[in-house]
Amino acid sequence: xxxxxxxxxxxxxxxxxxxxxxxxxxxxxxxxxxxxxxxxxxxxxxxxxxxxxxxxxxxxxxxxxxxxxxxxxxxxxxxxxxxxxxxxxxxxxxxxxxxxxxxxxxxxxxxxxxxxxxxxxxxxxxxxxxxxxxxxxxxxxxxxxxxxxxxx
Length: 152
Hints:
Blueprint: H1 6-33, H2 39-49, H3 55-75, H4 79-97, H5 106-121
């Protein structure tokens, strides 16, 4: 039987967390943006009922946060940033829509916790974002280190 290091277990757990949360967010964002339940008209009406100023803007922001943020979580592209947006959507859903009521808000608490975990831990080794260059460099994070001294 193969033994996994704690680091490998962590990276696999983050992959499972990202893909699961991301798929749920994509599904819900898709329903708002591209039809199905509730569609943008129905969702905007609900946001209007919450008393948000500029309800059209907030409805689109939430739907895009779910859809685009979910895709980003699945792929592991800017997962911390995506998780901030999905967490904000969950906070509104939890406390403004469902008023924190259990068991109705169970999925929202779980998705908020998943978003917070990803914000804190990042995407892990199995995230595409690891192959993007770090700030101030042109070398992707996942690329092997190269020697800076000339070989003789």
